[in-house]
Amino acid sequence: MSESALKDLNTIPPTERKSESSSKASLTKPPVDNANENLEEWQKKKSCPTLVSPPVNGNQTLSVSSGVEIGNAEVEYIESENLSDLEDIGTCLKNLLSGLDSKDWVMVCDALNNVRRLSLFHKEAMLDMLGDVITFVAKSLKSPRSAVCKTAIMTSADIFSAYNDLIIDSLDPLLVQLLLKSSQDKRFVCEAAEKALIAMTIWISPVALLPKLQPYLKNRNPRIRAKAAMCFSRSVPRLGAEGIKTYGIDKLIQVAASQLSDQLPESREAARTLLLELQNVYEKFHDLMPAATVSEQPEMGSWENFCQSKLSPLSAQAVLRVTNIAREGLVS
């Protein structure tokens, strides 16, 4: 701003400045100068369900069932079971990527909710463009605007439930952002991210998911490690006893042992839960093994022998302390 402009601004009485500022703050959209452009935007939005109601007194409002007011707009967070079907699938698909990439955050939220509708009601129709859609959803997860971020989190959960293992090659950008969001301070964003991570462990097979989670168990951020450990611990039991044996109890016990000494209690608790699951599975198969096999392979003997054969002395001691305490608690 030039010196003359600053001088002119300083000569404006405070009351006039306040009035000018408040009048600007009440506007969420600039005046429409081009009627044709406005008509085209209206026709695009008309074909897809929208969360935007007409401006009232210059304020743009989003209809609310469970929402948060942001500026002069209120954001509705619709639960999956309350989403309605699309009226015009073809038009929505045509405008979907441009909506997700819009600079208008309201249009982005509308597009994200349309991704959810397509996932729930017409998942085959979006399959060819799913990779591009996930890229834009991951971009929205990084948005500094909480409304966009939370809507993108809810969209991620619906994508998990609809597409299961089909998204595994595109999972990484969603996973890292969900781990970050689930460990941040904004409670309503954090809770939504937690729910999305739970949905991920439910709908994506553990055989596909565990290798994706494993690198985050060594992340430099302790909160990310903790959230990844919790997901890992939730996912392993879904393998079942046979699946755990096939995946490798020795691999899994090493992962769990490394988390026992982690900085955050969430990581340590996830490790304890996983170790108890592994112990139960190991002892189930051990009881079914012939005595000759056990004598030939000492590491396949007791749980204590197994831990000592697969872990360092200190790690084995820590693991046995955890599992013995749990067993003593059950006996008492």
List strands and helices in order, with pairings:
Elements: H1 3-10, H2 14-25, H3 35-46, E1 52-56, E2 59-62, E3 67-70, E4 73-76, H4 89-100, H5 105-121, H6 130-141, H7 146-163, H8 171-181, H9 187-203, H10 206-213, H11 222-235, H12 240-247, H13 249-259, H14 265-288, H15 291-296, H16 303-310, H17 313-331
Antiparallel strand pairs: 1-2, 3-4
Helix pairs in contact: 4-5, 5-7, 6-7, 6-8, 7-9, 8-9, 9-11, 10-11, 11-14, 13-14, 14-17, 16-17
Question: Explain this structure to me?
Answer:
By secondary structure, this protein is mainly α. The protein is built from 17 helices and four strands. The chain has helices spanning 3-10, 14-25, 35-46, 89-100, 105-121, 130-141, 146-163, 171-181, 187-203, 206-213, 222-235, 240-247, 249-259, 265-288, 291-296, 303-310, 313-331, and strands spanning 52-56, 59-62, 67-70, 73-76. The strands form two sheets. A two-stranded antiparallel sheet has the order 1-2. Strands 3-4 form a two-stranded antiparallel ribbon. The protein is elongated and about 65 Å long.
Q: How do you describe this structure in short?
A:
Helix 6 runs antiparallel to helix 7 (146-163), helix 14 (265-288) crosses helix 17 and helix 16 (303-310) packs antiparallel against helix 17.
CATH superfamily of the largest domain: Leucine-rich Repeat Variant
Discrete helix count: 17
Helix content: 55-70%
Q: Report the span from N to C terminus.
A: 76 Å
Radius of gyration: 27 Å
Major sheet attributes: 2 strands, antiparallel
Strand order of the largest sheet: 1-2
Q: What is the mean pLDDT? A: 81
Choose one word for the global shape.
Answer: elongated
Enter the CATH topology name of the largest domain: Leucine-rich Repeat Variant
Class based on secondary structure composition and strand pairing:
mainly alpha
GO molecular function: microtubule binding
Subcellular location: Cytoplasm, Cytoskeleton
HEAT repeats: 209-247
Keywords: Cytoplasm, Cytoskeleton, Repeat
